Amino acid sequence: MMETKKILAKLSNRTPTLLGKEQFTKFAVLLPLIEKDNEIHVLFEVRAFHLRRQPGEICFPGGRIDACDQNEQEAAIRETSEELGIETSKITNIFPLDYIISPFGTIIYPFVAIIAQCTMKPNKEEVAEIFTVPLSFFKQTTPEVYHVHFKAQPEADFPLDKIPNGKNYNWRLREMDEYFYYYKDKVIWGLTARILYHFIEIINQD
């Protein structure tokens, strides 16, 4: 049948992707490595305290992927350049890490890169301060892990009477691990710590 051929043609000419991806906000971040005191350090930012979202929290450079960005990597480089006040040419050896789909409707694309020795002029509109931590500290430190539980809460007019078990429907609970690293007076946690832990897992593999 012609209808069957049309259906098969549409299925054969598409590449599978993430269902509902257009509803997600997409971000790209960069885990920067720099040479300091004859060893490798990880660079972090402290978000400006006047920001509406997560003021004062420790993070990696990064931000929303814009329409002008050719891809996720370009977004991570652009954001890092803007936030640290450095030329993009100072950012080299860029490699992707596993991307994250968060429970909060975002997809985060992390990258790791080397930043050459240069003068940094952090953008005060976004960055309160920058600091570094020796990579050896994270390679030798096991983070504390805590759990956050998410409970399903249907809307008041949700048609519970139309589904099996109704009000007693057994909603699946979601659990998320939160990692915590403590370095001097700094608390590194959340997605930043999760990306960092993933990176350490990779480089610690035999």
Number of strands: 11
Major sheet details: 8 strands, mixed
CATH homologous superfamily? Nucleoside Triphosphate Pyrophosphohydrolase
Count of distinct structural domains: 1
* CATH level-two architecture: Alpha-Beta Complex
Give the count of helical stretches: 4
- Average pLDDT taken over every residue: 92
Shape, principal axes of CA atoms: globular
Strand content: 35-45%
Distance between the termini: 56 Å
Fraction in helix: 10-25%
Determine the CATH topology. Answer: Nucleoside Triphosphate Pyrophosphohydrolase
CATH level-1 class: Alpha Beta
InterPro entries: CoAse, NUDIX_hydrolase-like_dom_sf, NUDIX_hydrolase_dom
Pfam families: NUDIX
Organism: Thermolongibacillus altinsuensis
Keywords: Hydrolase, Magnesium, Manganese, Metal-binding
Detail the topology: elements first, then pairings.
Layout: H1 2-12, E1 25-36, E2 39-47, E3 58-59, E4 62-64, H2 72-84, E5 91-96, E6 100-101, E7 106-115, E8 127-134, H3 135-140, E9 144-150, E10 174-183, E11 186-189, H4 190-204
Parallel strand pairs: 1-7
Antiparallel strand pairs: 1-2, 1-4, 2-3, 2-8, 5-7, 6-7, 9-10, 10-11
Describe the structure.
The chain is α+β, with helices and mostly antiparallel strands and 206 residues long. It has one domain: Alpha-Beta Complex (Nucleoside Triphosphate Pyrophosphohydrolase). The chain has helices at residues 2-12, 72-84, 135-140, 190-204, and strands at 25-36, 39-47, 58-59, 62-64, 91-96, 100-101, 106-115, 127-134, 144-150, 174-183, 186-189. Strands 1, 2, 3, 4, 5, 6, 7 and 8 form an eight-stranded mixed β-sheet that branches. Strands 9-10-11 form a three-stranded antiparallel β-sheet. The longest helix is centred in the C-terminal third of the chain and has 15 residues, at 190-204. The radius of gyration is 21 Å and the shape is globular. The mean pLDDT is 92. Its cofactor is Mn(2+); Mg(2+). This is NUDIX domain-containing protein. InterPro entries: CoAse (IPR045121), NUDIX_hydrolase-like_dom_sf (IPR015797), NUDIX_hydrolase_dom (IPR000086). Residues 24-157 form the Nudix hydrolase domain.
